[in-house]
Amino acid sequence: MSIEDFAQLSDRAIMFASFVYAGALLAHVAEWARSMSRPAAVRRERVAVGAPGPAEAAPSAEALERWELKIESSARIGVALTVVGALLHLVGVVARSFATDPVRVPWGNMYEFTVTGTLVVVIGYLALLRRLDLRWLGLFLTAFVVVTLMAANLLLITSAGPLVPALHSYWLVIHVGAAMVSSGAFALGALASLVFLLKARGEERPGSRLARISRLFPAGDALDRFAYRVHAVGFPLWTFAVLIAGPIWAEYAWGSYWNWDPKEVWAFITWVCYAAYLHARATAGWKGKAAAMLALIGFASLLFNFVGINFFFGGGSMHSYAG
User: Can you give the residue ranges of the Cytochrome c assembly protein domain (predicted)?
Assistant: First the structure.
């Protein structure tokens, strides 16, 4: 295959992956809708088939089993489509590497970083799905992936091409690779923190639709604990990426370990946010809403570091070539 063929394969595989992820999102929406309407649906089914007894009578075991099977089928379809989407996504990322001469890692600009980083998030979710029973995260994860890939294709897409001279270094693999994996962990932690806040809000408003939704989530302690664990995994990698590998590469490329570049400064601000989150959890015993809000602030800072800096400070940033 030629370079152009690999470029087309990459673009098409990522496009089809987006469609499959959208299908997975719809399947998880169906799962949630059926889970929320389970009692009412079973009562309607009894009335429709002429079952004896009032409409408010307790549903039969068979009716419940049929409805639970529908919910389970939707969930399995969602997971299966997510796996298919991840495989197509992987093909697109790998093909992107072969779409240039010489072959290089597929994270040489913001579009590639976003596409590959999103794949890291999906792989992390699928790897932990059975071990930690993360099916409750499927709806939020697929929504995040669909929106992120859509934004990447609308705002960040760049034709495959050779790296600029400043990126011809093995530090591109080390520095950016570590930042990408840690960002994937932070994304999972942010989604869990968002779910925690939704559950807490629903518990404060009994009888509301949000309260009904919140009953589909795991216990608040489990959500809080999962968020803390993935943040604890991502933080050392982020520390290595922005405070060790990044400055070493900067000294090699620009002759100085620290240049007060906007992306460097904001990466450090993001590090401070996550350091505050983990420090508060470990020493002050912060849990619950305060910790979840701090985690989301950290993730917002992370997103601004990767996207906002390029839009607002692109011309004045030494990292502008990575836009």
Answer: 107-311
Decide if 206 is inside a domain. Answer: yes
- Total domains in the chain come to 1
Whether 239 is covered by a domain: the verdict is yes
Q: What is the pLDDT of residues 192-205, one digit of tens each?
A: 999 999 998 888 88
Structure tokens belonging to residue 134 = 């993360």
Place of tokens 């692109």: 314
Measured distance between the N- and C-terminal CA atoms of the chain, rounded to whole angstroms: 28
Q: What is the DSSP string of 97-119?
A: HTTSSS---S-SSHHHHHHHHHH
Q: Is the dihedral of CA 283, 284, 288, 290 positive or negative?
A: negative
Is the pTM here over 0.85, yes or no?
Answer: yes
Residue scoring higher pLDDT (318 or 214): 214
Sequence-separated (6 or more) residues with CB below 8 Å from residue 57: 43, 46, 51
